[in-house]
Amino acid sequence: MRKESQCKECPWVVENRHNSTIVEFSKKTGKAHNCHMTAGVKRFWDPNEKYVCKNFKNYNFSKLKTT
Known about the structure:
Elements: H1 17-29, H2 54-58
């Protein structure tokens, strides 16, 4: 089985002001987004399981919760 590669321009990997906005919004709201390098970019904040960002899926949201 072929290993899926990480997007080389992923907002969770490449740091710049625009990407930081995307990542911080996702962390704050827990809202998934589609990969911007696929057909999912047309509906970026309306995630489709086929196109959802792999790094968003891998992010551990439990470390943000404070008890």
